[in-house]
Amino acid sequence: MRKLIFAIIFLFSTSPFSLSSVISGIDKSDIELSTRFDGTSLLVFGALTLENDSTSLLVEVVGPSTSVNIRKKVQVWGIWVNKKVAQFQGIPSFYQISISNPEHPVLMEIENQKLKSLFYDFLETTSTPEDGNSAQQYYDELTRLKKKLGKLSTFEEKINIIDKKLFSYTVNLPKKIHPGIYKIKMTLIDQKGIELSKSEQSINVSKVGVQEFLSYNSKNNPVFYGLFSVIIALFLGFSAAQLFRWLYR
2-208 is classed in which CATH architecture? Predict the structure, then answer.
């Protein structure tokens, strides 16, 4: 709340020099991923000045980068195997975009341009033409799956604006998210989609406890991680066998 007060004071003190401006804050800057993590939400808030009634606020949430492989069943020497035919390299693991004016005249153009620059442009195809799949089909399937998993949302969440001076926005993160830095970008745009002012916040999502231990060793100590996994599997298998033997004796 203190950040919001300072933001409002700063905004109104500088408003004569800027027709449109936005200042933002968040209610939390760190999120811990434990074994009990079941998704969470965070509040984005701030103050703004609008050049006119046609100015709109755009909010984007961009997760850390990841890679997604597209595979297709092909026959090799009479055996069906999953062959990598395409890859999305360095795309956001989570992306959400919202706007204060759902009737914005170039809303579809904004959506297409944002998704193309973040996803479609990072597609690398390795398949041959006879595979029968186009780059557009891979892109459509990727966005469909991400929306189904709750990791891609376009203009579904609501931005609350009070008296054209204050705003609040809730970001809902699903249960399965990647650790890393999540960026929240606030942008004021005009009727043509031209950017007028920007503000950005960052959230650090990190694994803790058992999740951190397993993640660290899987990347830095693969031999130990493999042995540890085998030991745990043997222990659980032995414990289950003893339990069923005791129950049914």
Answer: Sandwich (2.60)
pLDDT score of 202 more than 80: yes
Q: What is the pTM of this model?
A: 0.75
Tokens of 105: 């005249």
Angle, to 10 degrees, between the axis of helix 222-247 and the axis of helix 210-220?
130
How do residues 22-33 score in pLDDT, each as one tens digit?
899 998 888 888
Segment 138-150 mean pLDDT: 90
Domain range list for the chain: 2-208, 209-249
Q: Which residue has the higher pLDDT, 190 or 229?
A: 190
- pLDDT band, very low/low/confident/very high, at 175 (cuts 50, 70, 90): confident
Evaluate whether 7 touches 45 at the Cβ level (below 8 Å): no
Spatial neighbors of 227 by CB under 8 A, at least 6 apart, are none
Q: Which residue has the tokens 């905004």?
A: 11
Sheet strands side by side (includes 21-26):
21-26, 40-49, 166-173, 159-162
- Contact (CB, 8 A) for 186 and 10: no
Is the pLDDT confidence value at 87 over 60?
yes
CA distances from 4 to 27, 46, 58, 167, 186 (A): 10, 6, 19, 10, 15
Q: Residue 39 — φ and ψ, nearest 5°? A: 90, 160
Distances, alpha carbon 116 to alpha carbons 37, 86, 87, 93, 185, in Å: 31, 16, 15, 15, 18
Name the DSSP letter for residue 34.
-
